[in-house]
Write the structure tokens for this entry.
Amino acid sequence: MPDRALDGVRVIEFADETAAYCGRLLADLGAEVIKVEPPGGGRLRRARPFVRGHEGDPNASLAFWVHNTSKKSVVLDLETDEGRSLARKLALTADIVLEDCPVGYLAERGLGFDTLHAEKPSLVYTSVTGFGQDGPHAHWAYSDIVGQAMGGIMTLAGEPADPPNLIYGRQADISASIQAAQGTLMALLYAEATGEGQRVDVSAQEALSMAQETAMQTWDFQKRNRTRTGELGMLPIPLPATGVAKCKDGYVSLYILAPAGKDLPALVDWMREKGMQGPLDDEPYRTIVNQLNMAWLTQLMSNPAAAGEILQHLPVITKTILEFFATMSAREAYEEGQRRQLLIGIVSTPKDIAENAQLRARDWFVRIESPIGGTVEFPGPPYRLSETPAVISRPPRLGEHTDEILASLR
Amino acid sequence: MPKKPLEGLRVADFSWYGAGPIAGNTLSQFGAEVIRVESETRPDGLRRVHPFAMNPDGTFKTGYNVSGYFNNFNTGKLSIQLNLNVPKGQEVAYRLIEKCDVFLTNFTPRVIDKWNLRYEQISAVNPRIIAAYAPMQGLTGPHRDFLGFGAVLTPVTGISHMSGFPHRPPIGVGTNYPDYVINPGHTVTAILAALRYRNRTGKGQLIELPQIESVVNALGTAVVEYLVNGDNPGRMGNRSLNASPHGAFRCADDPESVGSVDRWVVIACRDDREWAAAAAALGHPEAAADPRFATFEARKANEDELEALIGSWVRDRKAEDVAAALQAAGVPAGVVQNAQDLLERDEHMRARGYYQYVEHPEAGREAHDGPAFRLSATPGSVPGPAPLLGEHTMEVCERIIGLSMDEVADLLAEGVLV
């Protein structure tokens, strides 16, 4: 076993959907994370999708797995005196308490920040909820989609003709957990230096509101709301070589007018090599292709009328480019395009990610035990630390460590 | 003024655009001294893009210092101009890194090689350095020099395929989504873990955060469904495998919402109790007992009808009223808010004081995202405006790096500090 960054840190977790990924990040980095679960387990234990053939098995929810690797599980019933008393004893053995219960729930059971911190001043107590610990919505019911809506990111996603789009993957919960991990570690470092613990308060709404990109500043400076614009994003009008292109077997996304890569002429060079430049070497297209770059785009964003004469010619350029991408596979478009320093992203399906040449070449996927037997392949950690690598081990079975942990409290 | 938890920590921020600078911004908000290394020969692209601050006459301000996009992610940092394409610039970089605890970059390995900023080079200068590299694809491998930013990662990591409505092409999510929380947040998490290790052992280390690995890790169950079950799932709009109804429903327009008059409420009913409460709160308790909708399985089987029905209930009502009625009944619900709502109309955001305002010497008074987590004893805050390009070149050279005024004058004359 390598050295672990969070070696010797004990976390007692009263978390289900919103803070579990925070606990997972700490656990994979080496903290001992003991998850206190209600009898039968929480919502995530019952969440689809399950391992095929094991629907409903609390140890077979893939949604539970991805947020709960490397932890231990203790079942305690906080609705009983005995459960509360054991939970309290256990919490006082912790360096960190991590929770995502409704505001006040743990305090009503003798497990609130004030009580525990009074008894153990070095304790870091992290609360992760939809709207934080105070304010008029502190007690509002929360689920991931509510965080994505109230935090402002849904309003930016989707086609104007459709409802605003949810981003896949519990992104409000994930964002809240990632913010909580940072706050928790800062508070831990401070507690280790000074002996002083504190409360870390995370609101899922606030946690992802920075992901509004420029919408907040656009309102602040210009009193204009950014709205959902389909694939245009920040672009004021559709432009060639931006947006989704259909290939023979899938899609790529093009961002060739964005900064950091090569501009349109490099794409036309590639098209010419395949004899597919169409009319783009002829006027007026040739001049326009040379003109469409970031500087022009910035000018356009200040003054959309600046596009002027060019606008009427753009559809031909776009059509020629889309015809070019339609002749190749998505992977060829992505890999060869990137080799030419063109900003192109392949639209990966989950299978494509599992087979991604870069991830495979770097041995990113890991093999872990399955909580229901055998082993499975699993995504690796988000970062690689040379001296203290994150190590992913399997999620716990419901109550797997109850006897062991409770025996240690006696 | 309470102490900030990262006081005394010094960060050499060699990053640009979103994911890197935001990691530095978080460290800055919590007390670290963050030195942003820039060059006028290749300024951060965000300095040159909208939204720009405006003049009183309604025209846009111009120059490198008035982009709200850049300014929001670089609060309280120091800015030094340094040309890393010349050997003397690289020498100054080493002398800066020697005085820092953390090194941060999100350039591709190709550029890192060119600037001689590889880990073995900078750790030779400062063995205690915690060096965080966050390139798109990692430091090695066949795609290591692939270019991009958040909007390219969105398709590459599966977000585009998995988000949005299935009858639409995979258009993405409208923003450079992973740049803002997932990648900078994972980066800071790793830096803080490495700091703890250094506190205990004195040893620095290399942190590699390939943005593709960071994002796929945070992307729900999709890849695990393939690895474990062999399924290759796709997007399902706003629906959920675990709740029904689950989606956004159009309410009455709000003419006061500038340029964004359509208003939507989201509703998530995770069990029959929440569904019954929602139906009652919306004035249609009978719908809960309707056999088409009485159980979760029935609601999933009749979801088109269910959504049309709820849509008809709320279409002429004010979104805020619908959300409040549902919340009063304990049902997760909320308005799909825009920036105007978040900055000005959301009483909860205002009560918690999330946004913080600072005066910027060129842009004027600006709103900033405040800290996204609150520490009761050692709170963070927006420490000050973003630096003007090169604003602190002299200060960093003299006070931090320890160069003499003569040395600085020579470097300026030789075009190194540009």
